[in-house]
Structures are given as C-alpha cells and as structure tokens.
Amino acid sequence: MYQENENRYAEMIYRRVGNSGLKLSALSLGFWHNFGEVDRIDNQRAIMRRAFDSGITHFDLANNYGPPAGSAEINFGQIFKEDFKAYRDELVISSKAGFHMWEGPYGQGGSKKSIIASCNQSLKRMQLDYVDIFYHHCPDPETPLEETAHALDLLIRQGKALYIGISNYSPEQTKKIAEYFKAWQTPFISHQPQYNMFNRTIESELLTVLEQEGLGAIVFSPLAQGLLSNRYLNGIPKDSRAHRSDSPFLTEDQVESTLAKIKQLNDLAQNRDQSLAQMALAWNLRNPTVASVLVGASKVDQLNDNLKALANLEFSEAELNLINRILK
Predict the structure, then answer these.
(1) What's the mean pLDDT when you consider all of the chain?
(2) How many domains does the chain have?
C-alpha cells in the first residue's frame, strides 16, 4: 500500500493560474512521454509517487498520449485507482482533445462532436468523474471557433471539467475565444504553449495577451526535448531521442548546431550551482505569467534533479543579459 509523505507540501512552491483561484505546483508532471503501453508500469508508478510526495499536485495528460494513443490515460487510471484515489481532492488532473485520436471524421479537431466524445473517453480511461482542466489541444481551422468554445463550455456545465484551457493557440485566436468565454462566464484560466530558451516565440505577443486576459501559462518542453540538459554535452548518445529516426521533435542536426550555446549555458548553470536542466526550468519560472512548468521524467532520478531547480529561482540582471547574448 502506498503511504504518502506527510511533509509533501513543505518545500514546493505554488503559483496562482492567472486571475483564477486555482494554484498549481511550480513544476507539474507531464505524461506526453514515458507513460505509454511500451513503458514499464512499475517505473510509471514510482515517478508518480515521487512527484506527489514532493508536492507536485498537477498531472497533465491528453487523449493521444502513449504510445499507443490512449495508453497513458489507461495507465494513469490504473495507478490512480490503486494509489491516489484517496487523494483526488489534492490533485489537479488535466486532459486534452484536438489532435488525431481515432479514425474517421470525428477523431480529431474542434467540433462539439469530437470534443465531447473525446472527453467522455478520457474520463473512462482515467476512471475519473471529472477533470480539473480540460484543454482544446490545437486550433481547428475547419470548425468555427464559437462551436469549439461552446463545446468546452458545455463540459463545464455538465460537470465534466472545472476549468477550461487551450494549447498551441496564436495570440489572436486566444483573444477571440476569450471573448466567448467572458460572455458565457466560462472559467477559462490557462494556455499551454511551448516555451524554452531556444523557443521564445510566446514572448513577442502571447504573454502580453495572457496577462491582459487574466490567463496563466502552463508551459511544455522547457528543456527543448533534452537539449537543455547534460544529455548532449559530450555527443549524441545512441539511446537518445535525437539519435532515433522515428522522433520528429529533435534531430542530430539540431543538437550539433546548438552545441556551442548549450556548453556556454552549462558553464553559467555550474556557476549558479545548478545543472543545465535546473537552470532552464528556473529561467522559465522567472516570468510571473508562467504558473507552472511541465516536466517529463523517464526515471525518478531525473525528476529529483528537476525538483532541485526550485532551490534557486533568482537571476541577476547580469545573468539574464549573458543568457540573451548566448542565445543570439
């Protein structure tokens, strides 16, 4: 039987999501990788236990996480039922719909048909009555934005979600869908964009829009698929994501073209008594609009290393200027 750490909230930092009353742990556990059918269930359980014992309260999933699609939610549901059901009210659990999930015209997109069906399937796989946050995972140019917004609002009114979020939306799309939610008084609280030192696109407009709309950012890929870690400092390991031909998110060319910058950033991290990954996570959290940073973990030691980032979240002006010069 799992016995939780009684002091799990002592060292975690909690930040409010936009103007909502919801607080999230500064680090959230993401299930994009490492929780599929192909991954060991005992390792998944160990990572989830360590996360909860360290004060991480937010578990972030999506309908298509795996592989295969849906298996991350199935595994989560099994472990939740066995270990975490008694702690449901201490957890924020999120899921998403939008990317391709099943064959035919209704297995992806932003139609009411697709979103409602996908949420129902996710709840069944995770063995939950409701999720805390439900996201539209990506914009759908073939569906009127009002229909997508109405479907998400319906989930709130049906009691299947407590809050609504969006992911991968542009600043203009974010402002437009926010108009519908304001009119209907839908609890729209968050946007989940990609953000890291090598991808700062959200700084140009989106962060300003989120602040104006009272929304919080819950950012993913903070380590740039492992680039911002010690993984590639001494070359490209054969078992790394960049070496795999089936990985569309990171290539050997990307690693080689950024290696000089990675080494300079690592030198700065060492001067801060941090690993490169710890500094990268702290850098994301320097922005007050960022409510939480999603971290993935393939093993407990990796999660433990990430948690140490919270020990030093302060950056001097000289450090920030140096980071900007390195990244140019």
Answers:
(1) 95
(2) 1
Instruction: Write the pLDDT tens digit of every residue in 93-152.
Output: 999 999 999 999 999 999 999 999 999 999 999 999 999 999 999 999 999 999 999 999
In a domain, 206, yes or no: yes
- The structure tokens listed for 87 are 């702690």
Q: Which residue(s) pair with 295 in the sheet?
A: 29
Q: Residue 262 and residue 196: Cα distance in Å, rounded?
A: 13
Domain that holds residue 172: 14-227+277-314
Contact between 29 and 21 under an 8 Å Cβ cutoff? The reply is no
CATH of the domain at 56: 3.20.20.100
Residue 85 lies in a domain: yes
- Establish if 130 belongs to a structural domain: yes
Does some domain include residue 179? Answer: yes
pLDDT surpassing 80 at residue 240: no
Collect all residues with Cβ–Cβ distance below 8 Å to 276 and sequence separation of at least 6. 228, 229, 230, 233, 262, 265, 266, 269
- Whether the full predicted model's pTM is greater than 0.90, yes or no, is yes
